[in-house]
Write a structure and sequence with these properties.
Layout lengths: L1 E4 L5 H12 L19 E8 L2 E10 L13 E9 L8 H15 L4 E7 L4 H7 L3 E11 L1 H7 L12 E5 L12 E11 L1
Parallel strand pairs: 4-5
Antiparallel strand pairs: 1-2, 2-3, 3-4, 5-8, 6-7, 6-8
Length: about 190
């Protein structure tokens, strides 16, 4: 396996890897047809095996003028970390992370920040890889049935069918009937 900087010719493989790796996670519907571009500088690495992208990591980092991370200091936000399902469990994610950490240290970044959900094993993975949880809130996906009981728009011509929302309050139990609700957790790794 080779870990190297992302190149524009990797885009199709990058998209496939990201989509496939997210299918069995709480982010299964976060699908993109193109690789995202970042406003700030970034560390973008891919893992290549058998002539295909089997893993990826994208970290956009703070500049003097633009802050990406929520913590004080110079940090990098991990927007994507993914390993193709056929290649998971082989240490590719850890190798990508360690290569990215080396790059971040060269750039004098002080920490890396990542947000993940409580479904699956990603939170446990971050904790095993020197990250600590510093914040949390909830993502709620309201179906048309949830919307019919909870939302009454002033304009009767508007018929909400689906809604994505963030909840930062302390009474999450009021949403127990909502099927898709995830705790979102922020992890920080000091460099």
């Amino acid at each position: 396996m080779e870990i190297r900087k992302y190149e524009s010719t990797d885009e199709k493989g990058w998209v496939r890897c990201r989509v496939l790796s997210f299918l069995d996670t709480a982010y299964y519907d976060d699908v993109h047809r193109e690789k995202e571009r970042f406003e700030n500088p970034s560390i973008e690495l891919v893992a290549i095996e058998e002539d295909q992208v089997v893993g990826l990591i994208d970290i956009e980092y703070d500049t003097e003028d633009d802050k990406v991370c929520s913590e004080e200091g110079a940090g990098g936000m991990i927007w994507h970390l993914a390993v193709h399902p056929d290649f998971q469990g082989q240490g590719i994610g850890k190798a990508l992370m360690e290569n990215a950490v080396e790059e971040a240290i060269k750039l004098d970044l002080e920490f890396l920040e990542a947000w993940t959900r409580d479904a699956g094993n990603s939170a446990e993975w971050f904790e095993k890889n020197a990250y600590r949880k510093v914040d949390e809130y909830y993502h709620l996906y309201l179906s048309d049935e949830d919307m019919a009981h909870n939302v009454e728009p002033d304009d009767k011509a508007l018929h909400p069918l689906y809604m994505f929302a963030e909840y930062t309050g302390s009474d999450i139990e009021q949403f127990d009937a909502i099927e898709r609700k995830y705790k979102c957790m922020c992890y920080i790794r000091n460099l």
